[in-house]
Structures are given as structure tokens and as C-alpha cells.
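Sequence, please.
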């Protein structure tokens, strides 16, 4: 009788080998899934930056319709939120504060721009000009 009770207690838990096998299987699955998932996160941030640049561009266009010109580089995007001393300003032109890019940095603005009347862009994840993928520049001229 005593042997049956002891053998039942031993059967209730997992052995160390069984736990290690399960942990290895979970690690292998994570190693296969993670590389496919992380690039999509970067593409999502790039898409969000493009959408924000488009919305800021629309606000700049509305500013130009009211004032007659885009804000200069010194006035920057802040001219969309507070009057830089322009007579025909009818803003604010954004419902919320100026957004940061998806990587937590301010959008860069230049007027006149090298690609058009104004350049509105983000340097991407690395915050430096150039780069590829998530580190690539995203601008209104693309």
C-alpha cells in the first residue's frame, strides 16, 4: 500500500527534463516568429510617419490659403499652433499639439524647401540623414 501512495506523488509533477524540453520548444518557436514580426513593426512606424506628414502638409496648405505663404523655416511648424505675428492668421490649424514622429523626435521643416515649396520630413529611427528601412528618411516629396 505504501508503494502506491509514493508512486502517485511522483507522478503528479513534471520532471526537470520535461520542463527543459518545453522551454526549448518555446525558445525555438520564438526564434522563428520574432524575425518575421519585428520588421512589420518598423513598417507600421514608417506608415504612421507618412500619414502624419500628410496631415501636417494639409495644415500647412490651409495656413498658406489664409496667410498667402507657407511659414518660413524660422517660424517652423509652430506657426500652425500659435500666430507668428501674421495679420491673416486664423489658426490654430491643428486640433492637437504638434506630433512627434513615431520615434519620438520632432519633424523637420524647411521653407523654401529643396524638393518643393516646403520640405517636411523625419530622419527615421536613427535620426540621421540617409539610411534604409526603418532608418530611412521619410519626406513629403516621396
Amino acid at each position: 500500500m505504501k508503494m502506491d501512495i509514493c508512486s502517485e506523488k511522483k507522478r503528479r509533477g513534471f520532471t526537470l527534463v520535461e520542463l527543459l524540453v518545453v522551454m526549448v520548444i518555446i525558445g525555438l518557436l520564438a526564434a522563428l516568429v520574432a524575425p518575421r514580426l519585428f520588421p512589420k513593426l518598423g513598417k507600421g512606424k514608417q506608415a504612421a510617419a507618412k500619414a502624419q506628414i500628410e496631415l501636417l502638409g494639409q495644415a500647412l496648405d490651409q495656413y498658406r490659403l489664409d496667410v498667402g505663404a507657407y511659414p518660413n523655416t524660422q517660424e517652423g511648424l509652430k506657426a500652425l499652433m500659435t500666430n507668428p505675428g501674421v495679420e491673416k492668421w486664423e489658426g490654430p490649424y491643428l486640433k492637437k499639439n504638434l506630433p512627434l514622429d513615431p520615434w519620438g523626435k520632432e519633424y523637420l521643416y524647411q521653407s523654401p524647401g529643396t524638393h518643393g515649396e516646403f520640405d517636411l520630413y523625419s530622419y527615421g529611427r536613427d535620426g540621421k540623414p540617409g539610411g534604409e528601412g526603418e532608418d530611412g528618411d521619410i519626406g513629403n516629396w516621396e
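The first strand starts at residue 108 and ends at 110.
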